[in-house]
Every structure is written in C-alpha cells, then in structure tokens.
TrEMBL record:
InterPro entries documented for this protein: AA-Vitamin_Transporters (IPR050638), EamA_dom (IPR000620), EmrE-like (IPR037185)
Record-given protein name: DMT family transporter
Taxonomic lineage: Bacteria, Bacillati, Actinomycetota, Coriobacteriia, Eggerthellales
Record-stated family: Belongs to the EamA transporter family.
Pfam family, one: EamA
SUPFAM superfamilies listed in its UniProt record: Multidrug resistance efflux transporter EmrE
Record organism: Raoultibacter massiliensis
Length: 303
C-alpha cells in the first residue's frame, strides 16, 4: 500500500472515530437545545476556527464551481445534520449511528452511475449484505418511536452520499482543503437561516453557563466539524468517495460503545452480534471493490 493511501486510510479512521461519538454529544445537548440550534452553533464554531486558520478570502472564478460548493453546504452540512439531529429526538444514539452506516451503499451507486469512476464487484454487495444484517440486529434493539427517527436517519445517509460525491469533484480542483471546507460551512450556515428563525431561535447564552454544555458544543464545533471535515475531505481526495465512505460502517461500533458508557443505553446480545457483522461487512466490502478507473476520458468528464 502506497504511503499516500495509508495516510488516507488513517485520516478516514480518525475522522470516523470522532464522528462516531458525536451522536452521544448531540443527544446530551438535545436536553437544552433544539436540533437546529445545535447545528447552528456547531458549524458557527467550526467556521470561526477555520477562518482563524485561513482568514483570507479567495474567488473560485466560476459560478458553476460556486454552485457546487453551495450544494456541498446544503447536503453535507444543513440537510445531513438537520436530519440526524432531529432523528436523535425520536430514537437512540445507537440506532442513528447504525442506520447512517448505509451511506456507503448510496455513495457507491452515485459514484458508479454519475461519475463512472468506480467499479463495484459482487464482493462489495456481499459485504454490504453482511453489514446490513448487523445493522438490522442493532436497529431492532433501538427504542425508536413511530419509525420517524429511523426514516430520518436513512434520509441523512442518502444525503451524505450526495455530499461525498460532490466533495470528490471539488477535491479534483486542487484548491486548499481548509479554504474549501470553510466555504462549504459558510454555505451550510446560510441555508440554515430560514429554518433557524422559522423555529423561533434565540441565542440564549445563559445555557452555556453549564460546563458540560460548553464541552460538548466545543467538541462538536472544533473537533467533529472544523477538524473532521478537513480530514474527511483529504481522505476522499486520496482514496475516492467509495473507499472513504466505507469507513462509515465503523460508526455503529463506536457509537454503541460510547452510548453504553455515557448514556447507559443497553448492550444486548443482538447488538453485540450486529457490531461483529458490521465490522465483517466492512472488510468484505473492501475486498470486493474494484480499482478506480483512470484515463483522460474519465478526467475530462469530471471537469
């Protein structure tokens, strides 16, 4: 394995390790905050952190590229996390962490049918089937009410696949990764504004007097947003959307463990078996992937 590819896998693994615990932090914050409020504060903190690293503005030079950045902000920031945060109102952190793991399948289909730069072999679908069996086992143990939480989690997974595919295209432009992430955050925050004020949002800084609130919001803003979006985008640039998104299969393992320790959610035998199947599905899926297509014809199509 080349050094750059190893770096891509390491970046994806670290990112997922942090993201896997965000469900727990969000669940804690939902006691005092609305889903859209958590989303707004989280990405405002992330944007300010990235702006401190890259204070200068720059132009993309094309309205089509700007539109694609806006689409990344809408899909990967506003819609994905809004669906995820609302889902956590109706179901457990474990349940949401498990269900969003279907994102790699949506990503693979988009990469295959839209960009045509990924090949999928039967082993990939075998791995997905095994992982899905684990997902069903874990999901069946959730305490979801009415199925709305599960449905919103599936919607979040589908939207994340769109974001991953767009990010791959943006990465091919060669711009500074932090600058592009900052731009994506800015667009995401802009798209939040109508929902934010439509929900009766108030700043309410008194809620930040609680150290637990501050710690969780800082973790979501600085770690899970500012840092992880940069590392995730770098991983996508190195490995491609399909290989990188396969790491999302590990989210249930991390989320279930964190939920049991922090939120005291139950760890039953079906959940344990589901975690094992999910990990096995990840490995099988990786073995079943084909190589990324190369050649000028494909590169021209992506430009």
């Amino acid at each position: 394995m080349a050094a750059s590819e190893s770096r891509g896998h390491a970046l994806a693994l670290v990112t997922i390790a942090i993201w896997g615990t965000t469900f727990v932090s969000t669940k804690v914050l939902l006691v005092e905050f609305q889903p859209i409020e958590i989303l707004f504060y989280r990405f405002l903190i992330g944007l300010l952190a990235l702006a401190a690293l890259r204070p200068r503005r720059f132009k993309l030079g094309s309205w089509r590229r700007e539109a694609l950045c806006a689409a990344a902000g809408l899909s990967g920031v506003t819609l994905y996390y809004l669906f995820e945060n609302i889902a956590l109102v109706y179901t457990t952190a474990s349940n949401v962490g498990v269900i969003v793991s279907v994102a790699p399948f949506f990503t693979a289909l988009l990469a295959f049918f839209v960009t045509r730069d990924e090949r999928l072999r039967p082993g990939f679908f075998v791995g997905f089937a095994v992982a899905m069996a684990g997902i069903v086992l874990i999901s069946s143990q959730g305490l979801s009410g009415g199925g709305w939480g599960d449905l919103l989690a599936v919607a979040a997974a589908a939207v994340w696949a769109v974001y991953s595919t767009i990010t791959r295209k943006i990465g091919s432009w060669g711009y500074d990764n932090i600058q592009m992430t900052k731009r994506t955050f800015a667009w995401g925050l802009l798209f939040m504004v109508p929902v934010l004020f439509g929900s009766g949002f108030q700043f309410g800084f008194a809620r930040f007097a609680d150290p637990v609130t501050v710690a969780n919001m800082a973790f979501l803003g600085f770690g899970a947003s500012a840092l992880c979006f940069v590392t995730w985008n770098l991983a996508v640039r190195i490995l491609g959307a399909v290989k990188t998104s396969a790491y999302i299969y590990l989210v249930p393992v991390i989320t279930v463990a964190a939920s049991v320790i922090v939120l005291h959610e139950p760890l039953t035998a079906p959940i344990a078996c589901g975690v094992v199947l999910t990990c096995a599905g990840l490995l099988i899926s990786e073995w079943g992937k084909g190589e990324r297509k190369a050649g000028g014809r494909i590169r021209r199509r992506l430009r």
